[in-house]
């Protein structure tokens, strides 16, 4: 089977093989079955410094992403993301929003926007959304409650938009209230459906 594009999955969970990671794996398996090359990146394994809000990456005009002055793994990660055709972004809810490691990464992605000092608000450098994305999250609260009343979904959608991706599906696992918990069968099935949908022609 010929390769039908490249998928990058970004996992912001602190737990490898946990609920978010397992759900992301389900999406990836379905995409692989359709001939898509996949790669999973754990933010936990990357050296990513905190954004200092110097805004250097946001000051140069143009569609190309602004480069950060900090030297760590960010440039390599963002280059891989830019070269992908499809994205899966997974992060759990923690204190009403995405967890800290995901937020730290998200803040370092501001170079995809242009925001000179005299401007009132940033603008995404390239508003075209040529990629597609699936978003994955999990919460101790019921899924509908966490989706509506936390900032997690909005944060994940903003991150996908920065990367030039249109969100085509969301997989949310609610009531994750055990330390060691298997991915529910219903969520396994939905992950498979969303993986196929993500890479469908």
Strand line-up across the major sheet? 2-1-3-8-9
Task: Assign the CATH architecture.
Answer: 3-Layer(aba) Sandwich
CATH class: Alpha Beta
Percent of residues in beta strands: 15-25%
Poorly predicted runs are none
Q: CATH homologous superfamily - what is it?
A: Flavodoxin domain
The helix/strand class is alpha/beta
What is the alpha-carbon Rg in Å?
17 Å
The count of DSSP E runs of length 2 or more, i.e. the number of strands, is: 9
Count of helices? 7
CATH third-tier fold name: Rossmann fold
Give helix % range. Answer: 25-40%
Shape: globular
Number of domains: 1
- Provide the succession of SSEs: EHEHHEEEHEEEHHEH
> What would the average pLDDT be, to the nearest integer?
95
Q: What about the largest sheet?
A: 5 strands, parallel
Termini distance? 15 Å
């Amino acid at each position: 089977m010929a390769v039908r594009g490249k998928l990058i999955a970004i996992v912001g969970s602190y737990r490898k093989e946990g609920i978010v990671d397992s759900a992301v794996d389900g999406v990836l398996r379905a995409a692989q079955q359709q001939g898509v090359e996949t790669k999973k990146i754990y933010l936990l394994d990357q050296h990513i410094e905190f954004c200092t809000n110097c805004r250097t990456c946001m000051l140069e005009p143009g569609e190309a992403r602004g480069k950060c002055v900090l030297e760590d793994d960010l440039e390599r990660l963002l280059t891989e993301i830019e070269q992908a055709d499809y994205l899966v972004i997974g992060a759990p809810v923690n204190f009403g929003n995405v967890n800290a490691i995901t937020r730290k990464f998200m803040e370092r992605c501001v170079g995809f926007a242009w925001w000179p000092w005299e401007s009132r608000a940033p603008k995404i450098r390239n508003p075209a959304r040529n990629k597609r994305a699936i978003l994955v999250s999990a919460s101790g609260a019921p899924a509908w409650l966490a989706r509506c009343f936390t900032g997690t979904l909005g944060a994940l959608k903003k991150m996908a938009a920065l990367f030039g991706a249109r969100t085509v599906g969301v997989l949310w696992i609610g009531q994750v209230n055990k330390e060691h918990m298997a991915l529910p069968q219903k969520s396994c099935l939905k992950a498979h459906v969303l993986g196929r949908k993500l890479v469908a022609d």
